[in-house]
Design goal:
The chain is α+β, with helices and mostly antiparallel strands. It has 14 helices and 6 strands. Bound molecules: heme C (HEC).
Length: about 375
């Protein structure tokens, strides 16, 4: 190996104190580019080598401040200038409301800077190796030896002089550290890396698509996907008109809707409430009444509405003599179908609840027209 291609010369020492002495000696005789490799931190070595503090902390701080400022600026412009939104009468440009996002962006910037900066800026990520590692110095320095490397640097380097200095400083063994070729992945390597990444992403995407769309669902796990059936809007050769979607057969009634289907304003009067008068039924009726009817008919059903005049219609006073005389079935029918301005509430209340409301309404009417004989 020609001397010009040397990265440096390593001297290997058996003890940390020898290494420290050697550092001091070489420094004194004017050697500058010194690096030490040790199996564990050696006290005083950093000071002796003038190792500088990593600039990572300062970089992270700067980026954190930049992120905070950027988040403030973004929100200030969006909330205060571009689309001012007054919340609770407060100045849309006040900074206090912007703190959470400022904090988040600060954390984001710091984390990204710390991770990416460490990997790419300070560890030089696209470079996967280091001459010292590739020369095999780690064989010694990861066990019980201490190495001092005099790096060649850019200036003219007298390898022989370095070797002599190291030997005189007490090095047990000397080692040449060549510059491995090529030390960097290089542009071509980066392109290859990018191509590989792109291919991987494309393959992943295609695989995911296949998994979601085309994964063969085999019996018995077909989840009823595979069965002869007509999906909505599909045509069918089975029916004469070619339509897959069929209207229900004449006279069919949806489950649980039979009672509704049979009720009309003519038949309603004769219907009898199927529910007994029990506290549970009255409570259920009360709950349904308060949820559905109170807005219009008022808490005691006397028509004192919570609605504004803008509602237009006047809800009936259900305490009026006329409605006291209504049969249970008639009230039931009004709940089901509505009456004039009142819409039907069949959709909001199931059959039991409708009858429970009727029972509760009866209780309200009796409470408002109590006779002496009602008193206990
Ligand atoms: C959106 C408001 C509104 C709600 C909610 C409402 N009603 Fe009515 N209701 C009215 C109005 C308005 C009338 C008067 C209809 C008219 O013009 O005859 C009325 C009338 C009635 C009548 C008398 C119908 C007739 O034969 O004259 C009954 C009984 C009745 N409501 C019961 C109820 C019950 C029970 C509920 C709860 C399930 C309810 N209403 C919910 C507005 C409402």
């Amino acid at each position: 190996m020609p001397e010009a291609r040397l990265f440096g010369v390593a001297g290997i020492f058996g003890e940390p104190c020898r290494l420290l002495e050697a550092v001091a000696r070489l420094k004194a005789s004017g050697w500058e580019r010194l690096q030490a490799y040790t199996p564990y931190p050696v006290r005083g070595l950093e000071g002796a080598l003038d190792v500088k503090r990593s600039p990572l902390a300062g970089t992270v701080l700067a980026m954190a401040l930049a992120g905070t400022a950027l988040a403030w600026l973004m929100q200030w412009w969006m909330n205060g200038v571009d689309y001012p939104t007054v919340v609770g009468g407060k100045d849309p440009r006040s900074w206090q409301a912007l703190v959470p996002i400022m904090f988040e962006v600060m954390v984001l910037f710091s984390c990204l800077t710390a991770a990416l900066g460490m990997l790419f800026l300070f560890n030089r990520l696209p470079r996967f190796g280091h001459p010292v590692l590739e020369a095999g110095l780690g064989r010694f320095t990861t066990r019980d030896k201490f190495a001092l490397v005099v790096e060649a640097g850019a200036a003219a380097f007298d390898a022989e002089a370095a070797r002599r200095a190291l030997r005189e400083a007490g090095a047990e063994t000397l080692m040449n550290i060549p510059v491995p070729a090529p030390a960097f992945v290089g542009l071509r390597g980066l392109l290859r890396l990018a191509a590989a990444g792109g291919a991987l992403a494309a393959a992943g995407g295609a695989g995911m698509y296949w998994l979601i769309k085309l994964w063969p669902v085999l019996p018995p796990m077909s989840h009823m996907l595979v069965q002869p059936r007509l999906d909505a809007q599909m045509s069918s050769a089975f029916f004469a008109d070619g339509r897959g979607m069929r209207p229900p057969a004449e006279g069919s009634v949806a489950r649980g809707r039979l009672a509704e289907a049979l009720v009309s304003s003519r038949t309603a009067a004769g219907l009898a409430a199927p529910l007994p008068v029990t506290p549970a039924v009255l409570m259920a009726g009360r709950r349904a009444f308060e949820r559905t009817c109170v807005v219009c008919h008022g808490p005691v059903a006397d028509g004192t509405s919570l609605l504004t005049p803008a509602y237009g219609a006047v809800p009936a006073n259900l305490q009026a003599r006329k409605f006291l005389a209504y049969s249970d079935g008639m009230i039931y029918e009004r709940i089901l179908r509505g009456h004039n301005a009142m819409p039907g509430y069949a959709w909001a209340l199931d059959d039991d609840r409708r009858w429970a409301v009727v029972r509760y309404l009866r209780a309200l009417q009796r409470a408002q027209h109590a006779k002496e004989s009602d008193l206990p």
